[in-house]
Amino acid sequence: AQTVTQSQPEMSVQEAETVTLSCTYDTSESDYYLFWYKQPPSRQMILVIRQEAYKQQNATENRFSVNFQKAAKSFSLKISDSQLGDAAMYFCAYRSAAHGSGNTGKLIFGQGTTLQVKP
Amino acid sequence: GAGVSQSPSNKVTEKGKDVELRCDPISGHTALYWYRQSLGQGLEFLIYFQGNSAPDKSGLPSDRFSAERTGGSVSTLTIQRTQQEDSAVYLCASSFYLAGYGELFFGEGSRLTVL
Fold first, then answer.
1. What is the C-alpha separation between B11 and B79, in angstroms, rounded?
2. Mutation test of the interface with chain A: which of B97, B106, B110, B111, choosing the one with the most A Cβ atoms within 10 A?
3. Which residues on chain B are in Cβ contact (under 8 Å) with A46?
4. Contact A83, A19 (CB under 8 A)
5. CB A22 within 8 A of CB A6
6. Cβ count within 10 A of residue A16
7. Contact A91/A39 with Cβ under 8 angstroms?
8. Testing the interface with A: which of B6, B36, B43, B106 to mutate, by most A Cβ within 10 A?
9. Confidence band of B99 (pLDDT split at 50, 70, 90)
10. Do B101 and A101 make contact, defined as CB atoms within 8 angstroms?
11. What CA–CA distances, in Å, run from A60 to A67, B48, B84?
12. Which among B79, B78, B97, B109 has a CA at the least distance from the CA of B5?
């Protein structure tokens, strides 16, 4: 079974600085997707960025980028120029890309990292 | 609205009572998921519906939990004889599974408090 681990329960960053959130995962599959979701106090999960395992190039979305190390099964999120609105809980998630009726497409989540942004 | 809608937003109940939580997915989305998020924890998969296929109930923690999806749209998660450990936020998500990687869109959740 696949597992996702986030070893940093809490992180803090000064506004305008850069912070990196860590995530490791365990799988025997070769084809999968990885995601970072943001959960603000409103509770609604918002997709921040995604990475297809077959792509070597790291995904980037504006101030958000990932460092995907497939061999090490590591998927960290870097937030540049941190803003007060970035304060939230961040979840790393895994999704199998296997085809067939056995794949529900469900996301497997880590425990989350609470990010505090200091003004 | 265009997003996933969940109701009630908050529910307080007494131990032993039954509760129903509702999820209205995005129109046209064929896949629907229920997750449970206990305080300060990650999301725990509960159940998955895809079209007319048999649901994947592998994440339901006990037989007190059940869910149905009527007409391939609205879903209801029912918890019978609630216990204090059932207190959590219950999140629903939907996706159009066949579209690429099938991004999951989440609702704002239903916070259940069992006294």
1. 12
2. B106
3. 106
4. no
5. yes
6. 11
7. yes
8. B43
9. very low
10. no
11. 10, 30, 42
12. B109
Q: In Å, how far from its chain's centre is CA B53? A: 17
pLDDT at A99: 63
Q: At A49, is the pLDDT very low, low, confident or very high (cuts 50, 70, 90)?
A: very high
- 8 Å CB contact between B57 and B77: no
- The whole-number average pLDDT for the span A3-22 is 96
- Test B43 with A42 for CB contact under 8 angstroms: no
Q: What is the pLDDT of residue A4?
A: 96
- Which has the closest alpha carbon to A75: A12, A1, A2? A2
Q: What is the 3-state secondary structure (H, E, C) of B96-109?
A: CCCCCCCCCEECCC
What are the tens digits of pLDDT across the range B49-59? 988 888 889 99
